[in-house]
Amino acid sequence: MDYQNRAGSKFGGGGVASHSATNADRRERLRKLALETIDLDKDPYFFKNHVGSFECKLCLTVHQNDGSYLAHTQGKKHQTNLARRAAREQKEGKSQIDPNTGLPVGVVGAGFGAGMVRKNTVKIGRPGYRITKVRDQVTRQQGLLFQLQYPEIGQNVVPKVRFMSAFEQRIDDPPDKNYQYMLIASEPYETCGFKLQARR
């Protein structure tokens, strides 16, 4: 931080920093230090919403930048909520943590309540695919035909298809509302995503 040429300082003395400048510098140093030690991608409560701000899913708080979120995680409210959740899980016997998600076993991706057991299968690569432009004979409306090959999936397994808006995805930053994304997933293949024009 440059303290030179401030009011009340001698030449070459470094100057007198205001309280706000000192606090801003301290916050920036703490943010850089926290980012070196904490990986936000593995934090199960960290969520970036469609507006671009950050949310804590545990405390239901909104933060304008990652530094503010990191400061929140060290605060009393977040630590109290973590302790409360750990005590509740201990009481309910859910103390086992899934190493992939960092959340308690049975909460995310385990077919909770559906009677399905999630298989931790190794991804075997992308499926073969072909995209063809088509046109309806009657309405003359244009369309796309997606053909994907999944030779290794089960007999009665239907791949899952989901359309995602530009504000939900995390690939393109900033989001472009002129595009939407189609995701197709089926175990044990990798999920395929297609970027499409959002025509209205």
From TrEMBL:
Query: According to its record, what are the GO cellular component terms?
Result: catalytic step 2 spliceosome; U2 snRNP; U2-type prespliceosome
Residue ranges of the Matrin-type domain? 54-84
Write out the entry's keywords from A to Z: Metal-binding, mRNA processing, mRNA splicing, Nucleus, Spliceosome, Zinc, Zinc-finger
Extract one GO molecular function annotation from the record. nucleic acid binding
Per the record, which residues fall in region Disordered? 1-24
Q: Which GO terms describe its biological process?
A: spliceosomal complex assembly
Q: Name one Pfam family in it.
A: zf-met
List the subcellular locations: Nucleus
From which domain of life does this come?
Eukaryota
Q: Does the keyword Chloroplast apply?
A: no
Q: Which InterPro entries match?
A: Matrin/U1-C_Znf_C2H2, Matrin/U1-like-C_Znf_C2H2, SF3A2, SF3A2_dom, Znf_C2H2_sf, Znf_C2H2_type
Where does the protein principally reside?
Answer: nucleus
Quote the protein name from its UniProt record. Matrin-type domain-containing protein
What organism does the UniProt record list as the source?
Xylaria hypoxylon
Q: What is the lineage of its organism?
A: Eukaryota, Fungi, Dikarya, Ascomycota, Pezizomycotina
